[in-house]
């Protein structure tokens, strides 16, 4: 037993000596290369601060870019013909035979999508089936070309697109009655809708009836103030819907089509 105890003590002593040697080696290394280590850590800190300042400056620059608009932005409107479920050009193919007496809905697709996106087509079917094709007009904003840019480039155009939509609404008051007009925008389209509401109120002193933002785009907009993104003051009623992204383009829009049906039913009973 005494022999085993002595052997165990020797092993522990050897381990302690080994640890002391390692610590001594580390201290010598740190002392020898102290200047290089300090410079390296300082450089890493400087790079981190620089990147943080650059990122914040970039976000602020993006917000400032949203202060102005380009009047030459390219966009157009399509409208759904409930009789044959097709999309037609507005205003060329629109006439008095289309009944918009209950209300008008403008759908705005998101980044990378197109005006004939699945969720708008799906919603049009629900809407017109629920309302028996009576009293509702459904439009789709076509900004496909810009939506195919890089995300940053597309995001820079949302105010210009909102301005264009606002002017289109102003120029066609018989079709787009602000008291019953609803705009539904997905992703970047939600912010386009917000800017349309801002511009319309600035030009007319009247707010649009309702704006619904479906999964409003976050990147580049989260750090901007309310005047640079969709906000609660952009219409009389502003609703944000966060959908199930696993089945975004259909199930996510069902509550909106249901809302339109309820509004139609309530107005028809009055």
UniProtKB/TrEMBL annotation:
Pfam family name, one: Lipase
Entry superkingdom: Eukaryota
Keyword Repeat assigned: no
Molecular function GO labels: lipase activity
Residues in Lipase domain copies: 97-245
Any one GO cellular component localisation term in the record: extracellular space
Family that this chain belongs to: Belongs to the AB hydrolase superfamily. Lipase family.
Name of the protein described by the UniProt record: Lipase domain-containing protein
Organism: Oikopleura dioica (Tunicate)
